[in-house]
Amino acid sequence: GYEITFSLLNPDPKSHTVDWDIEGAVNRFVKPVLDKLSLVANFSVDSQILYYAVLGVTPRYDKESSSFLLSAHSLPHVINPVEARLGSSAASLYPVLNFLLYVPERSHSPLYIQDKDGAPVSTNAFHSPRWGGIMVYNVEAPASPQTSLPLHVDVDMARVMEVFLAQLRLLFGLSQEEVPPEFLLESPGNEGLADWELDHLLWAHTVENIATVSTTLTSLAQLLDKIGNIVIKDDVASEVYRAVASVQSAVTELSLGHLLAAFQASKEAVTCSERAFFDPSLLHLLYFPDDQKFAIYIPLFLPMAVPILLSLAKIVRETRLRKKEPTKMD
Amino acid sequence: GGMAAAVLLLLLLLAAAGPAPGRADAGRERRDALREELLLSPLPTGDVAATFQFRTRWDADLQRGAVSHYRLFPKALGRLVAALGVRELHLALTQGFWRTRYWGQPPLQAPAGAELWVWFQPTVTDVDKAWKELSNILSGIFCASLNFIDSTNTVIPTASFKPLGLANGTDHHLLRYAVLPREVVCTENLTPWKKLLPCGSKAGLAVLLKAERLFHSSYHSQAVHIRPICRDASCLALSWELRQTLTVVFDFFSSGQGKKDWSLFKMFSRTLTDACPLASQSKVYVDISPKNKEKELLEVSPPPTSVHEAIVQGDRRTYAVYDLLSPSLFNTSRSLNVQLKWKRPQDSSEMPIPTLHAQRYVGGYGLQTGEICTLIYNTHPYRAFPVILLETVPWYLRLYVHTLTIITKGKENKPSYIHYQPAQDRSRPHLLEMLIQLPANSVTKITIQFERALLKWTEYPPDPNHGFYVGSSVLSALVPSVTAMKDMDVEQSPLFTSLFPSSDGSSYFVRLYTEPLLVNLPTPDFSMPYNVICLTCTVVAVCYGSFYNLLTRTFHVEEPSRGGLAKRLANVIRKFRGVPPL
């Protein structure tokens, strides 16, 4: 499953009072997309508003456009300081996708993101794979300098969700396909992604899962070869058998074209193989390597054994000499 | 290009199809509110105590798990409460000990170390599993070693620790209490605590919380309290309240440099510049109550915005109030530095004695047996009142309950309620709860003898250790107050008066903790295995080697040698001396 968190960052609550109807926006825009994707994974959505959360990078002032610019090479440094404020999702183990909406301070308004060529990005947003996306929402300066602070800002959720949903598609690997000019692409409608894109996603995940399972099980087999005296518990063994059976059924279903069944089988295979591989009883260091056993016993027994072996050798030499003597005397 | 067009098209369809909700005032009605408060109280010994309270109240129903959009309430705690079915959560991390005898009764005391007590919802089926998960998650959020809480230090009290928030039906099997006396509090516990505040430490009262001054103090306690409260007077709906409290006592000699005059800058090396923009109320209270019924001894500057009188813990007290949200406060200067000056030196001989205070120590000698003695003092001149004593003793001190004696004024005092649960080795500690009536103006001595157990060799701590800690015992009492207290509205009164729900106006609730104890357990000599190995190896080498040589040596005649190197060297020296050679 995945957890999706929408965060509104307001570094300057004295100047801006920002309101967003996140509940309504989630129900109208995000829920249909997630309902369609529910075949792939479970999703849970929540949101928060963080105050006094600043980006870690100071933007540069550009005189020609009289605005502040964040250059493309400073974008990787933005995420780390913000992540400290986002809070860990302590109550669950699912990976988190963060979508941040940043309203810049009055002293740094307006703020634009520059791409590699130096032109401002049209959506004023960027995303980071496996983490999420950040969008900068600029507030117009008040008409007259005497308006009282704080300014009240109502976020235009349609514009924001447009960008976030596009970023969500990219994070899932659904990029826009180039169609030849004779073909017309049907709009996906309310749900944000077409059936064939969902199928592509299922197929890609199934193949990835099968590859992961084979790598995990191979590593497990190699571990067993390296340490001869590992004890495999019964439940670990049954998980391994289940993983193998699920992988085989997934491959069969894929060849028959039943995508959904193949995906479920591959998901089960991954869960079983991970559970078997990460079982605490398989920890490598729990087992004594043989050379450590030698290192313990040698200092005790070697000093005692050396005189015994030497005298044994002497006895053998003497008996051999005595055996030869009668033949010599004769 | 094309992708953006496709998504734009879909959203235009959505925008046209779905009705736009009325946005005019949907965002303006707030369902959560923040109040912050700082209370400065000079203590009789010349020290000063500062208590910060940050209270976030959220009109939402976290139980049903439907709510997941957070604003002022921190998301980490909200998800924890919803996911694990927590009804009340109280976590306190404390360094130092509150000396009740010299400092008076604290507004909210916590035992040394870490203390966690939680009431779960009745819908939770496996309370122990939820408790274990909760302590592990909190250990991650607050960077404290709360993951050491397990069945050997968790108890289920039956009479103490009644819920402080709304409760319908109290089945005590939903309560868990654990204390870790060894836990140390430092900056890495303060930082995540500050991160939970909506304004962080950038605005409002929290700018004063700088670690280098806070930990240079005699007592430092930070706590988090989550409980459900009534949304309004009719109590038809629930709200959730999160209180974050921090109490710090600055020492007269080390922080005050021997002078009784205190100021915000002297205590925190910071001053206040503004209130948190998200707070609906932000106030500083200074306790200027006259002691000993004389004229005011304490003078505060700058002049306060108002003066508030309240009956707190049975006494009538006066407070100077600085309202950070009132525009007149920052007119003259940009920062607020509250200064406390004494008009006349205070007589140190007239220190007021608190009505209820207690002491605990270990008696006996040697490493086999001992005795835990608790002394409870009731200094009220004519009123008697009952007190509930909760003692949690680890399993390795084997208590003998037949040696329990309670003596008041020379006579035996039988408790009206005793709940004792004996320990099980390595799985459960001792739990002793008693309801004792304290006569007026008396000292009650409670003694119980114990025997120290021998642990398994892996259970001993490393060599340089303090000993084994026994957690503080808890005394809960409704102390009769000198002046009658009126029922106050929680929203209007200062935060430090509404910590504990008051049932009637004639007494106030107090929870005191005694000192933690340190005991030494009989420790075996851990160098013996090494000694045994050395001795055995020596004996084997020497005796075996000699006997073996004697038994198997063969003797044969040896030719006299021409002389080795030593003989030749000796001959050379003899030639020099002119003596005939060997």
From TrEMBL, chain A:
GO terms for biological process: attachment of GPI anchor to protein; GPI anchor biosynthetic process. Its main location: endoplasmic reticulum. It is found in: Endoplasmic reticulum membrane. GO terms for cellular component: GPI-anchor transamidase complex. Keywords: Endoplasmic reticulum, Glycoprotein, GPI-anchor biosynthesis, Membrane, Transmembrane, Transmembrane helix. Signal peptide: none annotated. The keyword Lipid biosynthesis does not apply. The chain crosses the membrane at residues 294-316. Pathway: Glycolipid biosynthesis; glycosylphosphatidylinositol-anchor biosynthesis. It is a multi-pass membrane protein. PANTHER family: GPI TRANSAMIDASE COMPONENT PIG-S (PTHR21072). Belongs to the PIGS family. This is PIGS transamidase. The gene is Pigs.
UniProtKB/TrEMBL annotation, chain B:
GO terms for biological process: attachment of GPI anchor to protein. Residues 1-24 form the signal peptide. Keywords: Signal. GO terms for cellular component: GPI-anchor transamidase complex. Transmembrane segments: none annotated. Coiled coil: none annotated. Pfam families: Gpi16. This is PIGT transamidase. It comes from Calcarius ornatus (Chestnut-collared longspur). The gene is Pigt.
